[in-house]
Amino acid sequence: MLYKIIFTIALLTSLQLFAQDNSTTIKSEKDLMGYINDITVLDMNNKEVKLSDYNGKVLLIVNVASECGYTRQYTGLQEVYAKYNPKGFEILAFPCNDFGGQEPGTNEQIQNFCSSKFGVTFKLFDKVKVLGDDKSPLYQRLTNNSVTEKGDVKWNFEKFLISKEGKIVNRFRTKVEPTSEEVISAIESQLKK
Question: Is 51 left (phi over 0), alpha (psi -120 to 50) or beta?
Fold first, then answer.
């Protein structure tokens, strides 16, 4: 009888500890939905980059394309990058071919195009999918969080602002220019924090 009581107490204690650990894990996963720190991406040289490496920096993440009517936004992006990079700002550009096949090139072609046509010096990453079942984990998080508007990216050059802690804080649709007052004030606000 004593063994049954001890066994029952041990079992109940184990179940209670398991339930606490499980609820903590679920809460942590839920908390992560508004952050990108735990995500790893590939750069243009196919090397893994942990987005947590950017902790302490304000980020603007953009899906880009070389043959889009908005490709001229590279000029504004480079201008914003040059001005704010010394203050702790980075632009992470992710080429994407999801919209009308407007980014058909290889990573090398994309890199050459961006540097020769627009003088781009910010970081370009491996081509990603921002739509559908193959949507990258980064874009799954950017488009489905409790902070910004939920829903798919609608076109190239959509922008997401990320805080120094890796939190998704703003979303700017394609037509919002990178040099607009709306984007600049949001960047400056995050840099002051």
Answer: alpha
Number of H helices, E strands in the chain: 5, 7
Q: What's the Cα-to-Cα distance from 42 to each of 48, 123, 126, 127, 188, rounded to whole Å? A: 5, 11, 6, 9, 28
**Residues 6+ away with beta carbon under 8 Å from 90:** 54, 57, 58, 59, 60, 81, 122, 123
| 35-59: pLDDT as tens digits | 999 999 999 999 999 999 999 999 9
Catalytically annotated residue among 36, 41, 68, 130: 68
The answer to whether 68 is a known catalytic residue is yes
Task: Record the tokens describing residue 131, joined without a space.
Answer: 């739509």
Residue-wise pLDDT for 123-156, tens only, equals 999 999 999 999 999 999 999 998 888 999 999 9
